[in-house]
Amino acid sequence: MNDIKSSESPTQNSYVQILKSTTLVGGSQVINILISIVRTKFMAVLLGPAGVGLMGMYQAVTGMMGVVTGLGIGSSGVRQIAEATGSGDKVRIAKTVFVLRRTALVLGIAGMFVSISFSKPLSHVTFRSEDYSWGIALLGVTLLLGSISSGQVALIQGMRRIADLASLNIIGAALGTALSIPTIYIWGEAGIVPSLIMVSAMTILPSWWYARRIEVPMVSLSIKEVMMEAKSLVALGLVFMASSLMTTAVLYLIRVLVVRNLGMESVGLYQAAANLSSFYIGVVLNAMGMDFYPRLTAVANDNDTINRLVNEQTEIGLLVATPGILATLIFAPYVIQIFYSSKFLLAYNVLRWQILGVFLRVVAWPIGFVLLAKGKGKAFFLTELIWNAIHVILVWFGLNLFSLEGAGIAFFLLYVTYTPGIFAVVHHITGFEWSSANIRLGLCFTIIVAFAFLLPFLLQKHVAMLVNGFLTVAVTFWCLRRIYQLVGPAWFTKVRVKVKHRLGFLGQ
Question: What is the DSSP string of 380-445?
């Protein structure tokens, strides 16, 4: 492979920055995953597939409402704060933060009242019954809390305080889990709504704490000035909202299709497969969202730099994600039982197909950020509209042809079409091309993942698992070696020193 670059190389420094962000987020994600194992296990045992499905339906409904009433200001706020920070204008930064916080509060209150007002029709459309309207109405509180929290997180993310983001995610997850499990244990299915409110409340506390530690000059703006400043925030946010609304609406529609065709228990199985397929990959994708997006925004007018950053992010993403994808794919039955229970094993085939889709998502995800960073709202909206529509159509056909497994097949086919599609769009805008190294790496990993997927059909179950296990170990070591070549020994030395410092007994 490539020779180790000089420690002074700008390209190597860029790889170090990407890996630093990934490991910071990844470290918190590992802890979050451990917390999630505890929370998910309790929910699965206490509620069963039907209860987990009901919780997923509530989350889909409130997620969709939150997107509509939030107007995308969480995402547009990150972009505006990143731009203001890049300008070095402290007054501009202060105005942006002031307007973002006020707007988030107003929209959160509006969202809460929308949830209450439309609780009955939403319950009827979702469940074909108004029995769940009270739950939807109460969950309006989560829209208020979520909007306020998104404003705080946008400030932290826009200033690229990645360590703070990692910490607040851990604290929020731990507090939410500590309160939600006893609630479900005591009240069972009736405790789902209170537990979701508690999780949302516990998220806002650490976000407020870390946001207040950021020194922002005090400014005073009149209501008229706030409204004027909020126009640009909301204008850009509407583009994000349209995209997010399509995504959350699709998630909602898929669950409605599943519950109407196969029942609430199947929604729980689908929810389990969707969650498990995204657990590990969240490390990579969250790192992209938290640090990669602001980095792209800062160089939005330099196509050459954008294309280089996308290639670097793609390479690191593949190297970090592929071993985890292989492990999840190979040990899926055990993963399901560890995180959920034997009642969820029917999610196995759905999970395997979704893992294939997730692999392609790692490749497509960095490219999609280019449209956001360059402010190409129309192109971004149209691409999201087309492929979200394709997703719903594929799921409809999949459920009718292959039952629940069809939902997993649909997710895979979605990214089979989306990956070359988003590449073509961004290539037209920036002239983006995958580097020869990424083409070789992508083809190699595609063959390996496909082999691991097909092997259980060709060999006995335990033999296939053993062969795939050795394959995963070999790929993991190769990926570590390649990362070492990209970032150099200095970065690994720093990490080792930090680990020894924090866990002193390792160095003794």
Answer: HHHHHHHHHHHHHHHHHHHHHHHTTHHHHHHHHHHHHHHHHHHHHHHHHHH-----HHHHHHHHHH
What is the rounded distance in angstroms from the CA atom of residue 344 to the CA atom of residue 266? 9
Alpha-carbon span 87 to 83, nearest angstrom: 6
Q: Are 188 and 211 a contacting pair, CB within 8 Å?
A: no
Three-state DSSP state, 34? helix
Query: Which 3 state secondary structure label does DSSP give 160?
Result: coil
Please answer whether residues 185 and 46 qualify as being in contact, where contact means their C-beta atoms are separated by less than 8 angstroms: yes
User: Which DSSP symbol is given to 376?
Assistant: -
For the entire predicted model, the pTM comes to: 0.77
Q: How confident is the model at residue 7 (pLDDT cuts 50, 70, 90)?
A: very low
Indicate the burial class of 33 (C-beta count within 10 angstroms; 0-12, 13-18, 19 or more).
Answer: middle
* Strand, coil or helix: 139: coil
Alpha carbon distance 296, 92 (integer Å): 20
Tell me if 445 sits within 8 A of 322, measured CB to CB.
yes
Handedness of CA 173, 243, 420, 269 (dihedral sign): positive
Which two tokens mark 312?
């670097």
Residue type, 491: W
Q: Which of 463, 313, 436 minimizes the C-alpha distance to 11?
A: 313
CA gap 187, 183 in Å, rounded: 6
pLDDT for res 4: 38
Amino acid letter, residue 117? S
- The count of C-alpha atoms lying within 13 angstroms of the C-alpha of 159, restricted to the half-sphere facing its C-beta, is 21
Rounded average pLDDT over 122-129: 88
Alpha carbons 269 and 266: distance in angstroms, whole number: 5
> Exposure pattern of 486-507 as b/e (b: 16+ CB <10 Å)?
bbbeebeeeeeeeeeeeeeeee
Q: How far is CA 450 from CA 188, 317, 408, in A?
A: 41, 18, 15
Amino acid at 347: A
* Predicted local distance difference test score (pLDDT) of residue 116: 93
Q: What is the dihedral of CA 105, 106, 107, 108, to 10 degrees?
A: 50
Q: Are 21 and 162 in contact (CB under 8 A)?
A: yes
| pLDDT tens column, 32-45 | 777 877 888 888 88
Q: Which amino acid is at 404?
A: L
Distance CA 181, CA 38 (A): 9
